[in-house]
Design a protein that fits this description.
Layout (H helix, E strand, L loop, with lengths): L16 E2 L5 E2 L20 H13 L3 H13 L3 H13 L7 H15 L9 H17 L10 H13 L4 H13 L7 H13 L3 H13 L7 H14 L6 H13 L2 H17 L2
Antiparallel strand pairs: 1-2
């Protein structure tokens, strides 16, 4: 079984404190200038800088993209900070640097925690919280960012509940199953997985199906579990997500014919529910 969903950023931890609510107050030393200041006259506006950065990035001009995105980031643009965080985490056009990535994601969370879940920027802010939660889990080697499972759980909890982010819901469910950063709570894990599964989150569908089929959170629901495992298998990449196929095939082999037939009925009902 997959240990956690693979996020698109290098995953580590957070050394700041929470001042009030979910806002993340960084250590003043970590708040220092990330890059040299870009001249204010370099771009007509923050939006112009962002457009230029995206254009340069898509054209393969990573240096130009970084210059433009850093300008927009210095003006507080969340999407520019998020893209720079991704680039530093992945070593994409810049030297790989998890600590810089962490700083960019932290600033997004610190300044945009109250962003409306309906706003165009909500997804960016939510994924920043997910990134911070993942950093908290693993820590950043040779830095002040140490593993902190309780803080990771806080970050996932906020992104999962306030923004309804499926990656956060999945990670929070995993922590609830394993008792990381808090008590074990399989029933709560089922609830988080159900929310993410309904959004089409494939790993959540697979894990939910496995838990229902095996009865990890109480009574076994083999037919519904097999339904979710079938949905996950059909939507997964067979090479990358071999664990999903293995869970499905094992459950299918163990299921009685009546469970298989009921699973197909549930599958048809679930398909009709989709918009």
């Amino acid at each position: 079984m997959s240990p956690r969903i693979t996020l698109c950023i290098g995953l580590t931890a957070f050394y700041a404190t929470v001042a009030a609510g979910p806002a993340l107050a960084l250590d003043p030393k970590a708040q220092g200038q990330i890059t040299a200041a870009i001249p204010l006259e370099a771009f007509k506006s923050t939006s112009d800088a962002l457009r230029s950065g995206v254009k340069d990035y898509n054209a393969g001009d990573k240096l130009g993209a970084v210059k433009a995105l850093e300008y927009a980031a210095q003006q507080g643009h969340a999407l520019a900070r998020w893209k720079l965080g991704r680039m530093y985490a992945d070593g994409d056009g810049v030297p790989q640097n998890d600590l810089k990535a962490f700083q960019y994601f932290s600033r997004i969370a610190d300044e945009n925690a109250d962003e409306s879940p309906e706003s165009p920027s909500a997804r960016v802010v939510a994924t920043a919280f997910v990134a911070l939660g993942s950093y908290f889990l693993d820590g950043i080697p040779n830095s002040e960012v140490k593993p902190n499972a309780a803080r990771a759980r806080d970050m996932f909890q906020y992104a999962a509940s306030y923004f309804g982010d499926p990656d956060a819901q999945y990670n929070l469910a995993r922590m609830s199953i394993e008792g990381q950063g808090g008590p074990k709570d399989p029933r709560q894990a089922i609830r988080w997985l159900s929310l993410a599964a309904d959004k089409g989150h494939v790993p959540s569908q697979a894990l939910l199906g496995h838990m229902l089929f095996s009865g990890q959170a109480g009574s076994r629901q083999k037919a519904r579990g097999l339904m979710w495992l079938t949905i996950a298998r059909d939507a997964s990449n067979p090479e990358r997500d071999a664990w999903i196929t293995e869970l499905h095939d094992k459950a299918f082999a163990e299921a009685a014919d009546t469970d298989r037939q009921a699973a197909m009925v549930y599958l048809d009902q679930q398909t009709r529910r989709r918009p």
